[in-house]
Amino acid sequence: MQATVFNIKGAEVTTVELDDNIFGIEPNTAVMHQALVRQHANARQGTASTKTRQEVRGGGKKPYRQKGTGNARQGSRRAPQYTGGAVIFGPRPRSYEKDMPRKMRRLAVRSALSVKAIEDNLLFIDGFEGLEPRTKSMTEALVALKLNGQKVLILVAERDETVYRAAGNLANVKTLVAGYLNLDDMFKYTKVIVPLGALDVINRILGSSTAAGQE
């Protein structure tokens, strides 16, 4: 599979051969769903907490005597029906972490990349040479690449302060190191800009040598 490579001025400069094991597989919807649920679950802090009857203040004596008041008998102000009392079955600190085999996680990312390729939502560029660390410079590049006004995920091989500063103030643009590519960002952003350096990182992590037995 071949793809056209552009520069940040929107001109075609060359072509690149894409690994069919990454960008040309039959997308596995079930694995993508499982990976996305796992990612959202692992992002939860699990720190929500309420107090039980043993933890709330008060309750050292009966609110009133057992008999003769006409009210229901009560033993403690810590009971949940009282203001400031305990919470029944309330949230307690816990872990929401879900596990998933590495082969399945990588299959999910390959499936998402293949979906992007099928939908023509991947744009390959030769790099960000000539880009200035200014919002105006990134905006001009997006206009030249015909991506202005779209939700764009920009991949970089490693953290590049120029790219981060240029895109940092754009509401619908996110910059991400290719090694941290994930389903949530790929589903959240319509277009993905892939410089050749970031493509090398993706090939190294997800390429044919690691794809054996993926199905």
Could you explain the architecture of this structure?
The radius of gyration is 27 Å and the shape is elongated. The longest helix has 17 residues, at 102-118. Mean pLDDT is 92; it is low at 211-215. The protein is of the alpha/beta class and 215 residues long. Helices cover 32% and strands 14% of the residues. A 6-stranded mixed β-sheet has the order 2-1-3-6-4-5. It contains 7 helices and 6 strands, in the order ββαααβαβαβαβα.
Please name the defining characteristics of this protein.
215 residues, alpha/beta, 6 strands, 14% strand
Secondary-structure-based class equals: alpha/beta
Poorly predicted runs are: 211-215
Main sheet makeup? 6 strands, mixed
- Overall pLDDT metric: 92
Helix tally equals 7
Strand order of the largest sheet: 2-1-3-6-4-5
Return Rg in Å: 27 Å
Q: What is the terminal separation in angstroms?
A: 20 Å
H/E element string?
A: EEHHHEHEHEHEH
Estimated helix fraction = 25-40%
What is the overall silhouette? elongated
Strand content: 5-15%
Overall strand count: 6
Quick recap:
The chain is an alpha/beta fold and 215 residues long. It has helices spanning 20-23, 29-42, 102-118, 135-144, 161-167, 183-188, 196-206, and strands at residues 2-6, 12-17, 122-125, 152-156, 173-177, 191-195. Helix 2 (29-42) packs across helix 3 (102-118) and helix 4 packs across helix 5.
Please render the helix and strand layout as text.
Layout: E1 2-6, E2 12-17, H1 20-23, H2 29-42, H3 102-118, E3 122-125, H4 135-144, E4 152-156, H5 161-167, E5 173-177, H6 183-188, E6 191-195, H7 196-206
Helix pairs in contact: 2-3, 4-5
